[in-house]
Structure formats: structure tokens, C-alpha cells
Design a protein that fits this description.
With 115 residues, the chain is mostly helical. Helices cover 64% and strands 0% of the residues. The protein is built from 3 helices and no strands. The longest helix has 32 residues. It is elongated and about 65 Å long.
Amino acid sequence: MHVLPYLIAAYVFLTGCYGLATSRNLIHTVGCLAVCQSSTYVLLLAVGYRDGATAPVFSDIEPGSRPVVDPVVQALTLTDIVVGATVTALLLALVLQVAKRHGTLDPDELRELRG
């Protein structure tokens, strides 16, 4: 089993987490969250990958005669991409509203949001 895709997914996730922890801008924070989300794409595709396999299309050959990749994992990855884009768009809209109402994108300067 190859561990390189898993290491890449972990590296991308940790890079996004580092950006989340050190960010002083809400737009940068949303971008770092999107980077963390993209690590799940790599992880899901690494789980569904099979060496020497082809697409799961059985129009011209017998099923089971060749190895194929897992189509469920590919569908989950596409769903993850759509959900990630939607969440990113929603968070950017919220950041835009915070900037309009409070005049800043620095989370430390948002005193009114503290409980």
C-alpha cells in the first residue's frame, strides 16, 4: 500500500490548520478552512484508488474480468467538493456582512460578538 497520498492529505490538512490558527483576517480564515476541506478530497481518492484499475464502465466487457476503482468513493468526493464550495460561499457571505456591519475583518476587534 502506498502511503504518499495519505501523507499529502495530512500535510495539506495541517497546513490549513496552521493557517487557521495564525490568521488575523476572516477572509484568510475561510480560505484556510477551504484548504483543510481539500485535504479530504485527496484522502477519499487515495482510499478508492486501486493500482492498475480502470473506470467502472462495463459496456464492452464482462464484470469482474478486470480491476476497477470504487465509484462510491468518487461520488463521495464529488459530493464533498459541492458541499465545500457551498460552505465556502456561505462563509464568505457572512464575512462580507461582518465587514459591512463592524468595519473590520480582524477577529480580535469584533468586541460586540463576544458573549
